[in-house]
Structures are given as structure tokens and as C-alpha cells.
Amino acid sequence: MKYFLLLVLTLSMSTLAWSQNNEIDEIKEALGEAENAHERMILRYELAEAYLRVDAEEAEDIGKQAYNAANDQNNNGMAARAAFLVAKAFERQRDDRNTEVWLRTTLNHAKRAGDSDLIMSSVEKRSSLAVKDRNYRRAYEINQEAFTYFSQNGNSISDLEAKFETLRRQIDRDKKNLAQEKDQLEFQVRNLRMETDQLSTDKTVLEQRTSQLSEANKAKTEEIQSKEEELASVSEQKERAEREAKQRTREVNALSEEVAKEQLIAEKAENAKIGAELKAKTQEIYLFAAAGIAGILLLLALLLYSRFAAKKRTAKSLEEKNQQIEEERERSDELLLNILPAPIAEELKTKGKAQARQYKEATVFFSDFINFTGIAEKLTPEELVQELDKCFKGFDFIIGQYDDIEKIKTIGDAYMCASGLNDRKAMPNSMVKAALEMQEFLDEQKQERIRMGKPYFEARIGIHTGPVVAGVVGVKKFAYDIWGDTVNTAARVEANSEAGKVNISETTYGLIKYNFECTHRGKVQAKNKGLLDMYYVERELVAAAV
Fold first, then answer.
1. pLDDT in tens, 387-434
2. Which among 32, 129, 171, 264 counts the fewest CB atoms within 10 Å?
3. Side-chain-side CA neighbours of residue 191 (13 Å)
4. Kind plus residue range of the DSSP H or E element containing 461
5. Which residues make Cβ contacts (< 8 Å) with residue 166, sequence separation at least 6?
């Protein structure tokens, strides 16, 4: 049965290869008879598509020919399809770098041709390549770029948005799981290392004490046995002496009184001598016993001291750990204050949650770098992150000079902050001054980058004032954010700004017009908002500044 299945499989593959080769031969024959460039372009694309199933390298070469022909004829639709076919050929060859290059080419032509399917297909494959390389930020930017394109062109992007959200959630879950696993492993390794060291130390000390006690016990046992033998010998001598004394007494009774006196004197002298010897030996035994007891007491004292020293070391270690815990708590408080406003952080620590609040007159700020994707392609990943970090640190420093401005978040290359998020009534003057200072800071960076011959960032800034709702969302990773139509309007005001300009809404203008010189732009069409009156802030008035 097994051989029969192999035979059927072999015949099926042979039939498939024969039919594939037959199709390739037919397309080649038609290509030789083609009468114009457009027809040859179509046939080359079909031939490359046929080769893709059997020979990726040949499909790559013929696909490039079809792409060049389409490019010469300014046929963006066919150029996009041919570029996508070449990308799939490189993918079959496991050449990720060239796959990424031709997918970008596909995306550019598909945008010109308005081919939504090819745009989504190329974005999906580029995103998959970035995730494969664990470059989650790049995957996010690829999907964000497509999201922006579809939003600006008014097309349906539900599929792409769902893909984008799924990818973002997966990235967040992976990062959170990796961080948790890393923390758990590090904690377990530290505990095991501490327990191993403590057990090793205790084992060594115990072995040493056991060995010493065993040797001392053995020596004292031998010494006691020796003394017991000597004591038994002395007892025998004493009994023998008593028997001899009784015998002599009987003999004395039988002798004459004079002889008895002489013998009695001699006997007393001998008994005194024997008693002195017995007393000396008894004292010697007592001395040895006292020395043995003193040695045992000394060993017990050493053992008790070692336990005391161990407890002292344990207490010191516990004190150091408590100090480390206190330092970690202080660092956690500092980190919490970097993420949340001070009142919100205090409420969160005290109650475990923070109540959402509504503010009737908050000022929302948005900034966005112009042509970020184009500049990013000219920089290495390290240079891009370094330049973004420099700009956002500059923004952080500027708003840090104003107590009423709170940073909300950064989204890709966008920066968002707000003022008036407290119980005191706040004017948007600080926010507008900070925006002008940010544009001055970016202009200084621009001049420096031009001098170095490197790409530079220019930003649009938009500001709007109105009611918002603010609160903390999330369970483990807290995020402080604001919501409401004011936020959406501020984003639209920023989108209609220009490089190096601070664009404000009519509402914000009404609150700062006596402190800043502004230029009325008239009514500007804002997406989903209709016509809005907007103003460019030129400079702060001298009298107001004084």
C-alpha cells in the first residue's frame, strides 16, 4: 500500500510539472509573436508568475523585466504587481533584505495606482518581516504609515486597522510576558544563590564543629576509661590493704603487747603512706575530669558564639535588604511621578485606584514631525532613535519649566501634552509660550544638522482649548490619558499647521489674543470638523512678556 501511494504521488508531481512546463512553453511562444510593448509586458508578467512555481531565480529575472517595461510605460498598476511578484521570488529564495526592498517598491507604485489590495498585501508582508527580526517598532511604523495613507485618502481601512491593533496587542503581550519571565527568573536565581551560599557556609561550619566535638569526645572517652581503670586498680589495692590490715590485727592480738605496738606503729606508717598515695591519685583523677569538662564547655561556648555571629550576620543582611526595599520603593515612587501627575499618583498609592475627572477648560497640545518616514529611511535605526530622543528630551525640558503643563504621551513621532488639568482655572499662555520655545529649539537643531549635512526634523504644532475627561487606565502598566472632542479638534488643528508654525484654534485665540501677536488664517477645512477659524502665533507681545 505504501509503495502504491508513493507511485501515485510521483505520477501526480510529474503530471503537474509537465503541465507547468507546457504552460511556460505556450507563454514563451506567445511572447515571441507579440506585436507591441504592452502585450510583451503582460506576457512577461504571466511568464514570471508561471516560473514562480518552479524556479524562483528565473521568476525574479523575468519579473524584473516586466517591472522595467511597466515603469517605462508609466503603468503604476502593472509595476506594482510586477514588483510584488519579484518580492515573492526573493522570499522563496529566503533573501529578506531584497524582499523588503521590492515590497517598498510595490507599496510606492500601489499608492500611485490606488491599488488598496496590493497596499495591504505589501504592508502585511513588510510587517511580518519586521516581526520576524523582532523589530516591533518598525512593524508598528509600517502599519502606521499605511493607516495614515488610507485615512488621508478616505478609503476603508477596517482590515488594516484590525491587523494593526492585533499586532500591537501581540507586541505588548510578548513584551509584558518577557519582562515578567525575566523578573521571575532573576528573583529565583538570586534566592537560589543566597540559599546555596548560606547552606554551603552552614554545612562547612557544622562539619568543622562535628569533627572537633567527635575528636574531643573520643579523647575524653579514652581518658575517662584510663582513669576508671586506674581507679579500679586503686580500689583493689585499698581492699588488699584492708585485708592485710585485718590479718595483721589478728596477728597483733596473738603477739605480745610490745611487738604489737611496734607492728602497729609500722602498720600506721604504711597505711598513712598508702592513704597519701590514694589521695594524690584521686586528686589527679579529679583534675583530669575538670579539664575534660572545661574543654567541653569551651567547645559549647565556641558553638554558641558561632550561632550568635550567624544571627548577627543574618540581622545585618536583613537590614541591608530592608534598605534595598526602601530604595526600590523610592525609585518606584519617582517612576510613578514620571508617569502620572502628583495628585493622581498619591491617590493611586493611597486608594489603589484613581477617580476620573472632568475639566471644563483644558488646553491640549499636539506636535508631529513632517516627512518622518522619509527621514527615517535616510538614517540608521540608532541615529533615528538618538535624534528622536534628543528632540523629545528638549520638549520635556521646556514643558518642565511650566508647573501647569502635564506631558500625556508620545505616539510614534507625535508628542502630546496638556495644561489646566487641576482644580485651578488656568489660561493657555504657558502652553503657547512653550510651543514657541519648542519651534525655536527645533530651528536651532535644524541649523546644526544642515551644517553637518544631515537630515533634520521640522514639526507642525496645533493647540486647542476646551473640556476634557482625564483618568488612569490599565491594571499593571498605568497610563494617564485624556479624552473628548477637544483632543480630536487639537489633532485636526495640528494636522492643518505648517512646518515651524504654531497653529491655534479660535477658542484658544480668544484667551491669549492680548498677550501674543497672531495672524488670522481664515476658515480652514478640518477633517470631520468642517470649517474652523485658525490663527498662527507669531510672537509674544513685549508688554505681556514684561
1. 999 999 999 999 999 989 999 999 999 999 999 988 777 789 999 999
2. 32
3. 6
4. strand 459-473
5. none
Contacts of 23 (CB under 8 A, 6+ apart): 50
Cell numbers at residue 218, please? Answer: 573520643
Considering the domain architecture, whether residues 394 and 541 belong to the same structural domain is answered as: yes
Angle of helix 158-254 relative to helix 116-132, nearest 10 degrees?
20
- Do 115 and 155 contact (CB within 8 A), yes or no? no
Same domain (yes/no): 461, 402:
yes
Cα–Cα dist 515/504, whole Å: 14
Tell me if residue 251 falls in helix, strand or coil: helix
Give the integer Cα–Cα distance in Å for 103 and 86: 9
Cell numbers for 215: 575528636
- Measured CA to CA in angstroms, residue 204 lies from 196, 210, 214, 299 at distances of 12, 10, 15, 16
Place of cell 514563451: 28
Measured CA distances, 404 to 348, 358, 363 (Å): 20, 16, 10
pLDDT in tens, 38-84: 888 999 899 888 888 888 899 899 999 999 999 999 999 999 999 99
Is 253 within a domain? yes
Please give the DSSP secondary-structure letter assigned to residue 500: T
Question: Is 211 a domain residue?
Answer: yes
Take residue 452 and report the three cell numbers written for it. 553637518
Give the percent of the chain with pLDDT over 70.
80
* pTM over 0.90, yes/no: no
Distance from C-alpha of 89 to C-alpha of 91, rounded to nearest angstrom: 5
Name the range with the highest mean pLDDT among 29-38, 90-99, 154-163, 248-257.
90-99
Q: Which amino acid is at 477?
A: K
166 assigned to some structural domain: no
Residue labelled with grid coordinates 548577627 = 312
Separation CA 119–CA 76 (nearest Å): 13
Q: Report yes or no on 295 lying in a domain.
A: yes
pLDDT at 352: 64
Q: Classify burial at 276, counting beta carbons within 10 Å of its beta carbon; exposed 0-12, middle 13-18, buried 19 or more.
A: exposed
Instruction: Say if residue 21 is in the same domain as residue 72.
Output: yes
Residue pLDDT, tens place only, 217-272: 788 778 777 777 776 776 777 777 677 767 776 765 665 556 556 666 776 777 67
**C-alpha dist (Å) from residue 78 to 38, 69, 433, 465:** 10, 9, 51, 48
> Could you tell me the three cell numbers for 393?
528630551
- The average pLDDT across 150-174 equals 62
Q: What is the domain extent for residue 89?
A: 17-128+137-145
Q: How many structural domains comprise the chain?
A: 3
Give the burial class of 127: count Cβ atoms within 10 A of its Cβ; 0-12 exposed, 13-18 middle, 19 or more buried.
buried
Q: Which one-letter DSSP state was computed for residue 513? A: T
